[in-house]
Amino acid sequence: MSLIKDLFTNWSVWRRPGYFESFDYSWGMVIDLDRCTGCEACVVACTAENNLPIVGEKRFSENREIKWIRIERYWSGEYPNAKLSFIPMLCQHCDQAPCEIACPVSATYHNQDGLNTQIYNRCIGTRTCAVYCPYEVRFFNWFSYTWDAPLEQQLNPDVTVREKGVMEKCTFCIQRIREAKDHAKDDGRRRLREGDIQPACAQACPTKAIVFGDRNDPDSQVAQMASDARGYTVLKELNTSPSIVYLRRVDQEHV
Amino acid sequence: MSANIIGVYQYADDLLDAAGRLKASGFDEIELMSPIPLHGVEKVLGPKKSVLRRFALFGAIVGGVGGFLMAALSAIVFILPTSGRPIVPWPPFLIITFETTILLGTLATLIGFFFSANLPAWKDRPYLPAFSDNRFGVHVGCDEDAAEKVEKIMLDAGAEKVERVKT
Amino acid sequence: MSERGQPSYQEVNDAVLPTMTTFTWRYWTALSISVTVMIFGFFAPWWYQLFVGVGAAGMSRAAYWGTYLGNFIFWIGLSHSGTLLSAVLHITQSDWRKSIYRSAEAMTLFSLITAAFYVMVHLGRLWFVHWTVPIPNVMGLWPNFRSPLMFDVMAITTYLTASSIFIYMGSVPDFATVRDNATGLRRKIYAIMCFGWRGTDREWHRLGWAYTFFAVLVIPLAVSVHSIVSWDFALSIVPGLHHTIFAPYFVCGAIFSGTAGIVTVMYFLRKYFHFERYITEKHFNNLGKLLLLLSLIWSYINMLELFTGWFSGSSFEIEALRFKLFGFYAPLFWEMIAFCAFLPLVLFSEKIRTNFRLMLWISIAINIGMFTERFLIVATTQPRKFLPDAFSFYMPSLVEIAITIGSFAVFTTLFLVFVKVFPSMSMYEVKETLNLPTRKGART
Q1: Which listed residue, A174, A236, B79, C430, has the most CB atoms within 10 A of its CB?
Q2: What is the pLDDT of residues C415-426, one digit of tens each?
Q3: Where are the domains of chain C?
Q4: CATH placement of domain A2-250
Q5: Neighbors of chain A by Cβ distance (3+ pairs < 8 Å)
Q6: pTM assigned to the model
């Protein structure tokens, strides 16, 4: 009964689009394509940090690899004048994520940090979220993967190992965010500071092309870089409002 | 001690005729049994009212309200925002409401049917197997001393045979 | 008493009741083949897939959905005309429905069960399927009712419940007939199954009302079910799926394939159960007309869907369209057009509509076409979404093919069991269409 009362008295809250009036944090990323060299250090770092399985050559050729961040390569032009462009692609943590409505069991939802979370324990493997995702950054555990000894020793204890039939994707290294929040609490701070957190990919990037931070803080590097004239979001026309802003590469021809 | 008398008829119009005569003679406990739904029974035995439609309406309303509440309350009891949509959005919840309306409407109709048709009844009741085949029957429950009269009326209306059954 | 050529009540019973008790060698052969195929084609590969993971199927990144969902739509579609057609024809009081509707409704029920199996086959973690049931878990967490898949769960459960009730309630008087003609244990079982039905005026009156209510409730339900199935696809933003036309497209296609399914089933019932006097040219003629109409609507919607894709001018839509019309699966697409759009045009001729064998082949061809359509909806859209880097290709694996074949055996097995449990033609309603035996009628 009190629930029904709650439903009607707070009706405007339940009808508010997106529910959160403002996010506590709004974690975001800026990827400067002008700095990116396509070295894939981020891919390796992500694999190590998040216990991504190495699926092997056969599974890879079947398009069943699990890489939460990948470097997409696009060739343009014919051979002598061929040009290569690349873009690191990872979960965009959209504020209006198409994937989130898809799940029948609420295994994916939007948390108050503005993160698009995936709850492995709850996932039943309908794969609907992956179909709805326009960026193809959700990965399915087609099999249960194992790590040969001694590789199981290097698994990150802060991150679960996923079993077969579970969807997974980039979490913005949520284990690091949690840890930083705990430290901040220990230090008696209410908010995280710029630079407290770095996801594995940003940490590993040799050219500092990946910058991570809180977009709610106007002084943060992310917020300032995001308003750069070169900034754009991928597949903007789909109106997913991603959290990742890419900075366009400056070509010689265009200068 | 009451008697149960069954008259067996080959023709449907004879049956209705017999039912009319029995009714006119003041017998109230008349049941017609037939292999198919007969038309014109109401003309003879009076109009029928059934509570069935109330059941259907009630079930549908309960289903509709309950379905919406189930969706809305389950959404606010454990808040998991998705896709920048409201916690209680109209379009999806109306679909859920629609489905539960139909579901409970159907189930309530089923219950209403059992309730108003006095089914299921697995005990023995006045019946002859021929009534599911090609014979029509009338069953009258009456006092022992009126039995003779009932039998006569049935035979006059053209009954093939008249039987007394127990229970 | 009876008109020349019109069967008597007794003859109706004698035509239907023996079909439930006589077991020919043909029946045993069919049953054993279908049970074998069901076990080795459906359950064994499914078990294998549960054991190793969904990777046993041919799906991969981008093509996250495959044959399983194609099959799911197909079976849900096939379920659409039984109950829907039966209910619509009941409301419009078309008498010709009465000799075919029982088997049509059985088709609904069994294809729904097969479709429900496919949902489970599709799942990555079947052992947690109960999380989609609307009850809270220990944390008070409910399923997400905003999800299109949850609409599906609700719709299919409702549809399964409603159509089971629909077919069962329509059969209660016939169970009583079976009871009266059986002995021993069988009699006792049917006595329970018919709830002690006696056919009194009161029971008939209530059943008539209840049945009409069921019909009225089932019609919008059936339309909603396939619309909801289409929204699983249309609510995504995948090019080629994100069309508003999808709901009517699916509903029309569903009735189309379901009606063709009824024609197929009717042919076999007529042939092997000797219902020649009850299932006549008239039924084939009427269903043929319906098929023709549905095929025209289907072609129109299909053209419209392709047109809106092209007219949008979006490069994603056009790529999806190009892949569908001229890509690897193009032959299948044109086969579908030939079977579902052009072949049914021959039904303009009444001669063809009343030719039983031709109708059988046309109905099977239509269902092959419709199966292809469902496969293409899934297989050609997923690999061509947005980012060209993720473009991929989908080819069903052996496990998927085996399960597809096996599911037809599941359906056949259920149907073969059905014809021995239920009277496969409604006796009391066929009797209703005959002349009522009256003394007046007997005199003339």
Answers
A1: C430
A2: 999 989 998 888
A3: 23-134+141-431
A4: 3.30.70.20
A5: B, C
A6: 0.91
